[in-house]
Amino acid sequence: MKIVMLTGSPRKNGTSSLLADKFAEGAGEKGHHVVRFDAAFRKVGGCMACGYCKSHGGACVQKDDMDEILPALLDAHLAVFVTPLYYWDMTAQLKAVVDRFFAVDRALTDPPKGAVLLATCNSRHTWAFDALTEHYKAILRHLRWDDRGTLLVSGVGAREDIEDTEYPQKAKALGLSL
Ligand SMILES: Cc1cc2nc3c(=O)[nH]c(=O)nc-3n(C[C@H](O)[C@H](O)[C@H](O)COP(=O)(O)O)c2cc1C
């Protein structure tokens, strides 16, 4: 299976990137092909709502790394969203990528894909991930994708907070479960 992983953290060795690494390790061991795009280290402009894509076969007026990301995503069977919680939702860097799905969202629905959400946050509020998970559900509902698993880890602010927990192994197990 072809898997596209989209990460949102600007921290290369943070909490969510550890989950991303372990998930990819598990999926790789299962023989899946994982391509990872770290949105914070890519050039991706926010959608300008010009409508050009809708009359030009999904082509965007902005020439940036979405030219690489969207073809990979269109070709993938599964998308993995990986993000720290920023103001109770995904990071702006990842949201910019998701907004740009707009150009090809009809093509993204067919054939339908699976999706996975991996997320971390510092707080321990029981409601911390509510907005993010509702957002994720809405994206999947809109695109008619199937949820294949979520891993939400609260109470972690830095890599050392998550390293010795069960969550890296849980991320790997999720990758292996596919
Ligand atoms: C700009 C910013 C906004 C944040 N917003 C939240 C938040 O709304 N809720 C929360 O629990 N943690 C919040 N955090 C903390 C991060 O989600 C947390 O430290 C996470 O583990 C960082 O993941 P990373 O190391 O992969 O970047 C925020 C951190 C930053 C820098």
Automatic annotation (TrEMBL):
Transmembrane segments: none annotated. Residues 1-116 form the NADPH-dependent FMN reductase-like domain. It comes from Sporobacter termitidis DSM 10068. Keywords: Flavoprotein, FMN. This is NADPH-dependent FMN reductase. The lineage of its organism: Bacteria, Bacillati, Bacillota, Clostridia, Eubacteriales. One of its GO terms (molecular function) is oxidoreductase activity.
